Amino acid sequence: MGSAKNSTSAARKARIEEMRKAEQARERRNRILTVTASFVVVAGLVAGTVFLVQSQSDDSSTDAKATAGKFVTGSDGVKTWKGTLGRTHVTKTVKYPTEPPVGGDHHQAWMNCNGDVYTKALNNMNAVHSLEHGAVWVTYNSKASKTDVDALAAKVKKTPYTLMSPDDQQADPIMLTAWGHQRTVTGASDPNVDKFLEKFVQGEQTPEPGAACTGGLSQ
């Protein structure tokens, strides 16, 4: 049994290392593209304008349409959103039906999620974009102990495609969120933390697998 556990742990470490290397390669490509783009600024601006027109919703409305649906809790304690999760880039504020949100229309800029730990609350619209890229979002409120927060931060920093931030609007002390999925954990040592990361970091639920977790906002 110990052998099987070690094998699973080794496979997970190998997968995380693979993602880290892929992210580093992506960063190098992005730097090259940035230098190249400096010579075609005008073309880039035109392309960006077209993209915004195509991807953003009508700004005449006060709020973007909220996602319709409900949570269904599985035997493993993970809540899965049953309903349509919009993926439109919008500029108006989205009123999400859950806190933290598990998906829906969002801002075109994502939060950096390459093991990034934030000390201030995030704009949900940017964090949802990170979820779309396959990130797991660890959040906590004032009821979470400093010991748990520090331990979770250390774990996040070692795990590509994760991010962490405080959220005093959420109901439970510590919550884990992926696109369309969410669960509460009792603390940093809860075995469900690793189970959730293993399953949902760049998991099957990811709408845009392989999309960057760098090059976004860093607060």
TrEMBL record:
Record bears the keyword Transmembrane helix: yes
Domain of life: Bacteria
Compositionally skewed regions (Polar residues) per UniProt: 1-10
Cited InterPro entries: DUF3105
Keyword Cytoplasm: no
Family annotation (Pfam families): DUF3105
Biased composition (Basic and acidic residues): 14-27
Keywords from the UniProt entry: Membrane, Transmembrane, Transmembrane helix
Transmembrane residue ranges: 32-53
Residue ranges, annotated region (Disordered): 1-27
Protein name per its UniProtKB record: Membrane protein
The species this protein was found in: Streptomyces aurantiogriseus
